[in-house]
């Protein structure tokens, strides 16, 4: 539940990123929708989330929980025992966050209402259906994991298998909520205290009675403190510190959504709204999903409940696909928690009750007011517990010699947060550390998922002197780097199209969803991607001519139409409520304050309202303004491809050297030493159970 609340919060919030955090009353539409405001697009998206996405999630959770309950009943019957605990099934938390920011946000940028004539309803609908299509494809990838899942488990170091999910658990489930706690200590410290006494004390069983739902207690305590005025700061996502506004949000959402269900059975999946390039994003998400399934099924094996991993993968994939057909955009999976449920004495019925509870909550429309009633900081503390459990399990299941490699894998996910914060509210480059920005820009594409897996695998094999397999991973990384799947900081397609963030000449030369499927080459940019429609190049906008060189002297402030602080006319600021002051180069300034005439801030709106140029100086000519255009758009993936290829050759040299010197590789694949790792008897039992379950 806590994971779902957090993911829904991000899903509701992301339109504000696309709309550059303009005031809610500011008109941002164009053409026939020129009167549509930020609030119109924001509310249309929220309505889709509560009226269509939530019911779709309900169907996915029912399918999976009922399936896992029957799996537990079948295992109990085959082994003639009654202490079998069903695998927990729910939202795939790591993949859920990746879906919101790497898929939904990217689709929203394609249908940016500031750039194309689109109604708020169509904006929300296309984003939703496109994300459903991507989720459906991800479910198919999960099912495909049946064929390769066991192969991957046997041929990828254990720490590498855990690294992507461990990284998401550490960063987005652990670190990010902890930041919120430190923002609001009055609200968050008691729930944080209870996190460790309830979920980590006494060997993970907690010091409180097993019948006491401590996650619910934490949520209630935090919510009471929050509504008592304990929060100090507001955020860009929620009204957190003014009770009358909080009450208004609850009341409005209760009236708007309770008892309302606009679920569409067998949704027309929006494959037309997504591009093939999203495979580079969807595949790592699906990969993370079925890797997480493998990991959590193995954790259940260690507790004595030996489930068929192939059937679990099938349940996850089918549940995700069915959810997508009914409107869900979030993958579902078996999640960490079996150990906790086992200790509490849960059996198969808890899975059935879980399905029933979520079905009622998500189908009735109650999720909307509940979302605005509960305290997000205490919910974050529950996420901290989940995230740190993932990290703890990963380390306990991996050989200690691979801990350094696992930490490197986590760092790729940390880079995702650092990269995200390198942009200002208008999604333009805003950093004080250019060198650091360029580094994390190469680590973060695709959420860092694929890099976390492959690089960790390479390093583990180097530690174990398995140079032959390390070379295979290096050559695989080479292919992935040239195709944008790894290190996808690529700005130019092979045909010379320059990829822009929001599709106009008013954007920076970067991709909002770094990790697009492409073929990375050292090529020169000749035109902007938005200039080509129907196969024709239009003479609109430009890429300044430049001589392609390997060296890029780019300090970050030369990105296209990026006004530097020193060009702002702080002494003679003019315009309607301009903040910050106008740029002395282009005359650009921000939206006016509430109740005043808005000041248009993009070239796309120049000359609007009968020829009046609100956001530009009267004599400003965008076609004669090359001073702010970045001089050298470039690709980075090919450089990593070459580097990995060289590492592959070096690994082969070390393979020959190792054989000559008699260096024995370690062949245990990074399993932890007993008692954590399963012994041969358990492995044989797992294989026997998998075979018999498949037959049955």
TrEMBL record:
<keyword id="KW-0472">Membrane</keyword>
<feature type="transmembrane region" description="Helical">
    <location>
        <begin position="89"/>
        <end position="111"/>
    </location>
</feature>
<feature type="transmembrane region" description="Helical">
    <location>
        <begin position="403"/>
        <end position="420"/>
    </location>
</feature>
<feature type="transmembrane region" description="Helical">
    <location>
        <begin position="317"/>
        <end position="336"/>
    </location>
</feature>
<feature type="transmembrane region" description="Helical">
    <location>
        <begin position="440"/>
        <end position="460"/>
    </location>
</feature>
<feature type="transmembrane region" description="Helical">
    <location>
        <begin position="348"/>
        <end position="367"/>
    </location>
</feature>
<feature type="transmembrane region" description="Helical">
    <location>
        <begin position="131"/>
        <end position="152"/>
    </location>
</feature>
<feature type="transmembrane region" description="Helical">
    <location>
        <begin position="159"/>
        <end position="179"/>
    </location>
</feature>
<protein>
    <submittedName>
        <fullName>Uncharacterized protein</fullName>
    </submittedName>
</protein>
<feature type="transmembrane region" description="Helical">
    <location>
        <begin position="472"/>
        <end position="493"/>
    </location>
</feature>
<feature type="transmembrane region" description="Helical">
    <location>
        <begin position="57"/>
        <end position="77"/>
    </location>
</feature>
<feature type="transmembrane region" description="Helical">
    <location>
        <begin position="638"/>
        <end position="657"/>
    </location>
</feature>
<keyword id="KW-0812">Transmembrane</keyword>
<keyword id="KW-1133">Transmembrane helix</keyword>
<feature type="transmembrane region" description="Helical">
    <location>
        <begin position="208"/>
        <end position="227"/>
    </location>
</feature>
């Amino acid at each position: 539940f806590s994971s779902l609340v957090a993911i829904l919060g991000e899903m509701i919030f992301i339109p504000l990123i696309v709309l550059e955090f303009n005031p809610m009353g500011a008109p941002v539409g164009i053409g026939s929708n020129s009167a549509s405001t930020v609030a119109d697009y924001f509310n249309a998206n929220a309505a889709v989330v509560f009226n269509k996405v939530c019911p779709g999630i309900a169907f996915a959770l029912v399918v999976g929980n009922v399936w896992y309950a029957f799996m537990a009943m079948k295992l109990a019957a085959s082994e003639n025992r009654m202490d079998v605990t069903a695998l927990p099934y729910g939202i795939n938390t790591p993949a859920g966050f990746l879906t919101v920011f790497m898929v939904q946000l990217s689709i929203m940028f394609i249908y940016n209402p500031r750039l194309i004539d689109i109604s708020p309803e169509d904006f929300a609908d296309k984003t939703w259906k496109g994300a459903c299509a991507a989720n459906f494809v991800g479910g198919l990838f999960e099912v495909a994991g049946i064929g390769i899942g066991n192969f991957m488990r046997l041929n990828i170091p254990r720490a590498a298998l855990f690294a992507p999910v461990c990284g998401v658990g550490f960063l987005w489930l652990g670190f990010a909520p902890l930041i919120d706690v430190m923002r609001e200590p009055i609200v968050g410290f008691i729930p944080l205290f209870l996190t460790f006494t309830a979920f980590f004390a006494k060997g993970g069983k907690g010091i409180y009675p097993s019948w006491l739902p401590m996650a619910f207690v934490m949520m209630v305590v935090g919510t009471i403190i929050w509504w008592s005025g304990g929060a100090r700061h507001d955020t860009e996502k929620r009204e957190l510190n003014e009770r009358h506004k909080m009450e208004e949000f609850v009341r409005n959402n209760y009236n708007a959504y309770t008892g309302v269900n606009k679920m569409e059975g067998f949704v027309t999946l929006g494959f037309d709204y997504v591009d093939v390039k999203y495979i580079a994003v969807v595949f790592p998400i699906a990969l993370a999903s079925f890797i997480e399934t493998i990991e959590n099924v193995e954790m259940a094996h260690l507790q004595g409940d030996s489930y068929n991993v192939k059937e679990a993968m099938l349940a996850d994939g089918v549940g995700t696909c069915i959810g997508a057909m009914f409107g869900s955009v979030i993958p579902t999976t078996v999640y960490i928690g079996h150990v906790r449920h086992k200790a509490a004495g849960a059996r198969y019925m808890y899975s059935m009750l879980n399905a029933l509870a979520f079905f009622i909550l998500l189908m009735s429309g109650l999720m909307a007011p509940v979302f605005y009633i509960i305290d997000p900081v205490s919910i974050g503390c529950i996420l901290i517990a989940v995230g740190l459990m993932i990290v703890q399990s990963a380390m306990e299941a991996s050989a200690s010699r691979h801990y350094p490699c696992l930490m490197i894998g986590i760092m790729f996910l940390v880079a995702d947060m650092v990269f995200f914060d390198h942009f200002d509210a208008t999604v333009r480059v805003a950093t004080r550390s250019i060198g650091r920005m360029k580094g994390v820009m190469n680590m973060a594409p695709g959420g860092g998922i694929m890099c976390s897996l492959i690089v960790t695998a390479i390093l583990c094999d180097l530690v174990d002197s398995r140079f032959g397999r390390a070379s295979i991973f290096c050559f695989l990384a080479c292919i992935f780097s040239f195709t944008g799947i790894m290190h996808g900081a690529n700005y130019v397609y092979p045909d010379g199209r320059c990829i822009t963030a929001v599709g106009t000449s008013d954007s920076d030369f970067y991709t909002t969803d770094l990790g697009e499927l492409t073929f990375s080459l050292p090529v020169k940019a000749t035109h902007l991607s938005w200039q080509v429609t129907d196969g024709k190049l239009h003479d609109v906008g430009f890429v300044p001519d430049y001589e392609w060189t390997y060296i890029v002297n780019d300090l970050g402030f030369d990105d296209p139409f990026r006004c530097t602080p020193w060009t702002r006319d702080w002494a003679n600021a003019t315009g309607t409520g301009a903040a910050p002051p106008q740029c002395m180069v282009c005359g650009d300034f921000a939206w006016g304050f509430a109740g005043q005439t808005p000041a248009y801030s993009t070239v796309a709106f120049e000359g609007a309202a009968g020829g009046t140029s609100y956001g530009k100086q009267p004599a400003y000519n965008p076609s004669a303004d090359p001073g702010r255009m970045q001089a050298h758009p470039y690709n980075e993936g090919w450089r990593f491809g070459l580097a990995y290829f060289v590492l592959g050759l070096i690994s082969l040299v070390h393979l020959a050297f190792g054989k000559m010197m008699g260096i024995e590789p370690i062949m245990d694949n990074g399993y932890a030493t007993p008692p954590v790792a399963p012994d041969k008897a358990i492995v044989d039992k797992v294989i026997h159970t998998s075979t018999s379950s498949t037959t049955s």
